[in-house]
Protein backbone atom coordinates (compact mmCIF):
# COMPACT_ATOMS: atom_id res chain seq x y z
CA UNK A 1 0.00 0.00 0.00
CA UNK A 2 2.78 2.37 0.89
CA UNK A 3 4.65 1.41 -2.25
CA UNK A 4 1.61 2.11 -4.45
CA UNK A 5 1.08 5.49 -2.81
CA UNK A 6 4.74 6.35 -3.35
CA UNK A 7 4.52 5.36 -7.03
CA UNK A 8 1.37 7.45 -7.47
CA UNK A 9 3.05 10.48 -5.97
CA UNK A 10 6.09 10.02 -8.23
CA UNK A 11 3.91 9.73 -11.33
CA UNK A 12 1.93 12.84 -10.42
CA UNK A 13 5.13 14.77 -9.75
CA UNK A 14 6.55 13.67 -13.09
CA UNK A 15 3.37 14.71 -14.92
CA UNK A 16 3.41 18.10 -13.21
CA UNK A 17 7.05 18.63 -14.13
CA UNK A 18 6.40 17.68 -17.76
CA UNK A 19 3.42 19.99 -17.99
CA UNK A 20 5.43 22.84 -16.52
CA UNK A 21 8.25 22.23 -18.94
CA UNK A 22 6.09 21.92 -22.04
CA UNK A 23 3.70 24.82 -21.52
CA UNK A 24 4.65 28.42 -22.09
CA UNK A 25 4.52 30.50 -18.93
CA UNK A 26 4.38 34.22 -18.30
CA UNK A 27 6.73 33.92 -15.34
CA UNK A 28 10.05 35.70 -15.72
CA UNK A 29 13.18 33.95 -14.40
CA UNK A 30 15.53 35.37 -11.81
CA UNK A 31 19.10 36.07 -12.91
CA UNK A 32 20.29 32.80 -11.33
CA UNK A 33 17.54 30.75 -13.03
CA UNK A 34 18.28 32.52 -16.31
CA UNK A 35 22.01 31.78 -16.13
CA UNK A 36 21.43 28.16 -15.13
CA UNK A 37 19.23 27.59 -18.18
CA UNK A 38 21.21 29.78 -20.58
CA UNK A 39 21.24 28.42 -24.14
CA UNK A 40 23.81 29.02 -26.86
CA UNK A 41 21.55 31.29 -29.02
CA UNK A 42 20.74 33.52 -26.03
CA UNK A 43 24.41 33.67 -25.05
CA UNK A 44 25.32 34.72 -28.60
CA UNK A 45 22.61 37.42 -28.53
CA UNK A 46 23.94 38.79 -25.22
CA UNK A 47 27.49 38.91 -26.60
CA UNK A 48 26.30 40.58 -29.82
CA UNK A 49 24.32 43.26 -27.97
CA UNK A 50 27.37 44.03 -25.82
CA UNK A 51 29.58 44.45 -28.91
CA UNK A 52 26.97 46.62 -30.66
CA UNK A 53 26.64 48.74 -27.53
CA UNK A 54 30.41 49.26 -27.37
CA UNK A 55 30.40 50.26 -31.04
CA UNK A 56 27.55 52.74 -30.51
CA UNK A 57 29.30 54.28 -27.50
CA UNK A 58 32.47 54.67 -29.56
CA UNK A 59 30.53 56.51 -32.26
CA UNK A 60 28.86 58.70 -29.63
CA UNK A 61 32.16 59.74 -28.00
CA UNK A 62 33.54 60.60 -31.43
CA UNK A 63 30.43 62.69 -32.19
CA UNK A 64 30.55 64.38 -28.78
CA UNK A 65 34.21 65.29 -29.29
CA UNK A 66 33.38 66.80 -32.68
CA UNK A 67 30.47 68.82 -31.23
CA UNK A 68 32.48 70.10 -28.26
CA UNK A 69 35.27 71.37 -30.51
CA UNK A 70 33.43 72.57 -33.62
CA UNK A 71 29.79 73.30 -32.85
CA UNK A 72 28.78 76.82 -31.73
CA UNK A 73 28.56 77.04 -27.95
CA UNK A 74 24.79 77.60 -27.75
CA UNK A 75 24.08 74.29 -29.56
CA UNK A 76 26.52 71.99 -27.76
CA UNK A 77 24.54 70.76 -24.76
CA UNK A 78 21.27 70.03 -26.57
CA UNK A 79 23.03 68.37 -29.52
CA UNK A 80 24.88 66.00 -27.16
CA UNK A 81 21.66 65.25 -25.25
CA UNK A 82 19.98 64.25 -28.50
CA UNK A 83 22.90 62.06 -29.57
CA UNK A 84 22.97 60.36 -26.16
CA UNK A 85 19.72 58.54 -26.92
CA UNK A 86 21.44 55.97 -29.18
CA UNK A 87 24.08 54.65 -26.73
CA UNK A 88 21.59 54.89 -23.87
CA UNK A 89 19.15 52.59 -25.66
CA UNK A 90 21.88 50.06 -26.47
CA UNK A 91 23.05 50.11 -22.84
CA UNK A 92 19.59 49.37 -21.49
CA UNK A 93 19.12 46.86 -24.29
CA UNK A 94 22.05 44.88 -22.89
CA UNK A 95 20.63 45.12 -19.36
CA UNK A 96 17.21 44.01 -20.61
CA UNK A 97 18.65 40.90 -22.30
CA UNK A 98 20.91 40.01 -19.37
CA UNK A 99 18.25 40.59 -16.66
CA UNK A 100 14.83 39.49 -18.00
CA UNK A 101 12.88 40.85 -15.03
CA UNK A 102 14.24 44.34 -15.73
CA UNK A 103 12.95 44.50 -19.31
CA UNK A 104 9.99 46.79 -18.59
CA UNK A 105 12.02 49.14 -16.42
CA UNK A 106 14.60 49.39 -19.22
CA UNK A 107 11.84 50.00 -21.75
CA UNK A 108 10.46 52.76 -19.54
CA UNK A 109 13.83 54.54 -19.33
CA UNK A 110 14.22 54.36 -23.13
CA UNK A 111 10.69 55.61 -23.70
CA UNK A 112 10.85 58.50 -21.22
CA UNK A 113 14.24 59.65 -22.49
CA UNK A 114 12.88 59.80 -26.02
CA UNK A 115 10.04 62.02 -24.80
CA UNK A 116 12.56 64.31 -23.12
CA UNK A 117 14.57 64.42 -26.35
CA UNK A 118 11.44 65.48 -28.24
CA UNK A 119 11.25 68.66 -26.17
CA UNK A 120 15.04 69.13 -26.35
CA UNK A 121 14.72 68.98 -30.14
CA UNK A 122 12.07 71.72 -30.06
CA UNK A 123 14.34 73.89 -27.89
CA UNK A 124 17.32 73.28 -30.18
CA UNK A 125 15.26 74.32 -33.21
CA UNK A 126 14.31 77.54 -31.47
CA UNK A 127 18.00 78.19 -30.72
CA UNK A 128 18.89 77.52 -34.34
CA UNK A 129 16.56 80.34 -35.44
CA UNK A 130 17.59 82.72 -32.61
CA UNK A 131 14.39 82.30 -30.60
CA UNK A 132 10.66 82.59 -31.15
CA UNK A 133 10.66 86.38 -31.56
CA UNK A 134 13.28 86.24 -34.30
CA UNK A 135 11.35 83.45 -36.03
CA UNK A 136 8.14 85.49 -36.03
CA UNK A 137 9.94 88.52 -37.47
CA UNK A 138 11.69 86.53 -40.20
CA UNK A 139 8.55 84.70 -41.41
CA UNK A 140 6.04 87.17 -42.79
CA UNK A 141 4.47 84.60 -45.14
CA UNK A 142 1.86 81.87 -44.50
CA UNK A 143 4.20 79.24 -43.07
CA UNK A 144 2.24 77.80 -40.11
CA UNK A 145 0.02 74.83 -40.93
CA UNK A 146 -1.88 72.36 -38.75
CA UNK A 147 -2.50 70.09 -41.72
CA UNK A 148 0.41 67.77 -41.01
CA UNK A 149 0.59 64.05 -40.17
CA UNK A 150 -0.55 62.19 -38.16
CA UNK A 151 -3.68 64.30 -37.50
CA UNK A 152 -3.95 66.05 -40.87
CA UNK A 153 -7.16 64.16 -41.70
CA UNK A 154 -8.87 65.56 -38.58
CA UNK A 155 -8.12 69.22 -39.36
CA UNK A 156 -8.77 69.55 -43.13
CA UNK A 157 -10.43 72.95 -42.80
CA UNK A 158 -7.44 74.74 -41.25
CA UNK A 159 -5.50 76.84 -43.76
CA UNK A 160 -1.90 78.01 -43.66
CA UNK A 161 -1.39 81.08 -41.45
CA UNK A 162 1.39 83.41 -40.27
CA UNK A 163 3.57 82.37 -37.33
CA UNK A 164 2.46 84.02 -34.10
CA UNK A 165 3.40 83.75 -30.43
CA UNK A 166 0.20 81.89 -29.58
CA UNK A 167 0.65 79.38 -32.41
CA UNK A 168 4.23 78.64 -31.31
CA UNK A 169 3.01 78.28 -27.73
CA UNK A 170 0.42 75.76 -28.94
CA UNK A 171 3.16 73.71 -30.64
CA UNK A 172 5.32 73.94 -27.52
CA UNK A 173 2.47 72.60 -25.35
CA UNK A 174 1.87 69.68 -27.72
CA UNK A 175 5.50 68.65 -27.42
CA UNK A 176 5.94 69.53 -23.74
CA UNK A 177 3.11 67.21 -22.67
CA UNK A 178 5.07 64.21 -23.96
CA UNK A 179 7.64 63.89 -21.14
CA UNK A 180 5.07 64.86 -18.49
CA UNK A 181 2.20 62.58 -19.51
CA UNK A 182 4.32 59.63 -20.66
CA UNK A 183 6.44 59.66 -17.50
CA UNK A 184 3.33 59.61 -15.29
CA UNK A 185 1.72 56.78 -17.28
CA UNK A 186 4.83 54.60 -17.38
CA UNK A 187 5.53 55.21 -13.69
CA UNK A 188 2.05 53.87 -12.91
CA UNK A 189 2.62 50.89 -15.23
CA UNK A 190 5.87 50.05 -13.46
CA UNK A 191 4.00 49.90 -10.16
CA UNK A 192 1.50 47.50 -11.75
CA UNK A 193 4.35 45.44 -13.25
CA UNK A 194 5.95 44.98 -9.83
CA UNK A 195 2.79 44.47 -7.78
CA UNK A 196 0.58 42.47 -10.14
CA UNK A 197 2.66 41.04 -12.98
CA UNK A 198 0.28 38.10 -13.77
CA UNK A 199 -2.42 40.64 -14.74
CA UNK A 200 -0.03 43.22 -16.21
CA UNK A 201 -0.83 42.42 -19.86
CA UNK A 202 -4.54 42.86 -19.14
CA UNK A 203 -4.19 46.07 -17.13
CA UNK A 204 -1.88 47.75 -19.67
CA UNK A 205 -4.71 47.71 -22.22
CA UNK A 206 -6.45 50.45 -20.20
CA UNK A 207 -3.33 52.64 -20.48
CA UNK A 208 -2.76 52.13 -24.21
CA UNK A 209 -5.37 54.70 -25.44
CA UNK A 210 -3.87 57.45 -23.24
CA UNK A 211 -0.32 56.56 -24.30
CA UNK A 212 -1.24 56.54 -27.99
CA UNK A 213 -3.21 59.83 -27.86
CA UNK A 214 -0.35 61.59 -26.07
CA UNK A 215 2.20 60.30 -28.60
CA UNK A 216 0.04 61.30 -31.57
CA UNK A 217 -0.36 64.84 -30.21
CA UNK A 218 3.38 65.14 -29.57
CA UNK A 219 4.35 63.82 -33.00
CA UNK A 220 1.80 66.17 -34.54
CA UNK A 221 3.49 69.11 -32.81
CA UNK A 222 6.94 67.98 -33.98
CA UNK A 223 5.69 67.63 -37.55
CA UNK A 224 4.18 71.13 -37.47
CA UNK A 225 7.49 72.50 -36.20
CA UNK A 226 9.75 70.74 -38.71
CA UNK A 227 7.54 71.38 -41.74
CA UNK A 228 7.38 75.05 -40.77
CA UNK A 229 11.15 75.51 -40.32
CA UNK A 230 12.76 73.08 -42.77
CA UNK A 231 11.99 75.06 -45.99
CA UNK A 232 13.18 78.31 -44.39
CA UNK A 233 16.40 76.95 -42.85
CA UNK A 234 17.53 74.31 -45.30
CA UNK A 235 21.18 74.39 -44.17
CA UNK A 236 20.20 73.12 -40.71
CA UNK A 237 19.06 69.71 -42.08
CA UNK A 238 16.12 69.72 -39.70
CA UNK A 239 14.15 67.09 -41.61
CA UNK A 240 17.02 64.61 -41.39
CA UNK A 241 17.62 65.34 -37.70
CA UNK A 242 13.93 64.88 -37.00
CA UNK A 243 13.82 61.59 -38.90
CA UNK A 244 16.74 60.00 -37.01
CA UNK A 245 14.97 60.97 -33.76
CA UNK A 246 11.50 59.84 -34.84
CA UNK A 247 12.93 56.53 -36.08
CA UNK A 248 13.77 55.68 -32.45
CA UNK A 249 10.09 55.92 -31.48
CA UNK A 250 9.00 53.83 -34.47
CA UNK A 251 11.60 51.12 -33.82
CA UNK A 252 10.94 50.98 -30.06
CA UNK A 253 7.12 50.94 -30.25
CA UNK A 254 6.13 49.27 -33.54
CA UNK A 255 8.99 46.84 -34.11
CA UNK A 256 8.27 44.77 -30.94
CA UNK A 257 4.79 43.95 -32.26
CA UNK A 258 6.26 42.62 -35.51
CA UNK A 259 8.97 40.61 -33.78
CA UNK A 260 6.47 39.21 -31.26
CA UNK A 261 4.25 37.95 -34.09
CA UNK A 262 7.18 36.32 -35.90
CA UNK A 263 8.65 34.73 -32.76
CA UNK A 264 5.27 33.47 -31.53
CA UNK A 265 4.58 31.71 -34.83
CA UNK A 266 8.11 30.41 -35.41
CA UNK A 267 9.25 29.21 -31.97
CA UNK A 268 7.66 26.20 -30.27
CA UNK A 269 10.22 25.57 -27.51
CA UNK A 270 9.51 28.00 -24.66
CA UNK A 271 10.37 25.96 -21.58
CA UNK A 272 11.25 27.90 -18.46
CA UNK A 273 13.56 29.85 -18.04
CA UNK A 274 13.78 30.61 -21.80
CA UNK A 275 10.12 31.57 -22.00
CA UNK A 276 8.50 33.13 -25.02
CA UNK A 277 8.74 36.58 -23.45
CA UNK A 278 12.47 36.13 -22.83
CA UNK A 279 13.09 35.04 -26.44
CA UNK A 280 11.00 37.87 -27.90
CA UNK A 281 12.82 40.43 -25.80
CA UNK A 282 16.28 39.05 -26.66
CA UNK A 283 15.65 39.14 -30.42
CA UNK A 284 14.07 42.60 -30.21
CA UNK A 285 16.98 44.06 -28.23
CA UNK A 286 19.50 42.58 -30.67
CA UNK A 287 17.74 44.23 -33.63
CA UNK A 288 17.35 47.49 -31.70
CA UNK A 289 21.05 47.67 -30.75
CA UNK A 290 22.07 47.22 -34.39
CA UNK A 291 19.59 49.86 -35.55
CA UNK A 292 20.75 52.35 -32.91
CA UNK A 293 24.34 51.96 -34.13
CA UNK A 294 23.21 52.72 -37.69
CA UNK A 295 21.16 55.74 -36.58
CA UNK A 296 24.09 56.99 -34.51
CA UNK A 297 26.30 56.90 -37.62
CA UNK A 298 23.66 58.78 -39.59
CA UNK A 299 23.18 61.36 -36.83
CA UNK A 300 26.93 62.03 -36.76
CA UNK A 301 26.65 63.29 -40.35
CA UNK A 302 23.73 65.57 -39.50
CA UNK A 303 24.83 67.17 -36.22
CA UNK A 304 27.77 69.05 -37.59
CA UNK A 305 28.13 72.78 -37.17
CA UNK A 306 25.38 74.63 -39.08
CA UNK A 307 27.08 76.65 -41.80
CA UNK A 308 24.41 79.36 -41.76
CA UNK A 309 22.13 80.42 -38.92
CA UNK A 310 19.25 82.09 -40.65
CA UNK A 311 16.86 81.64 -43.56
CA UNK A 312 18.40 79.47 -46.22
TrEMBL record:
PANTHER family: ORGANIC SOLUTE TRANSPORTER-RELATED (PTHR23423). This is Organic solute transporter alpha-like protein. It is found in: Membrane. Its main location: membrane. It is a multi-pass membrane protein. It comes from the Eukaryota. The keyword Membrane applies. The chain crosses the membrane at residues 38-60, 80-104, 110-129, 170-191, 203-230, 242-263, 283-303. It comes from Anopheles merus (Mosquito). It holds the Pfam family Solute_trans_a. InterPro entries: Ostalpha/TMEM184C. One of its GO terms (cellular component) is membrane. Keywords: Membrane, Transmembrane, Transmembrane helix.
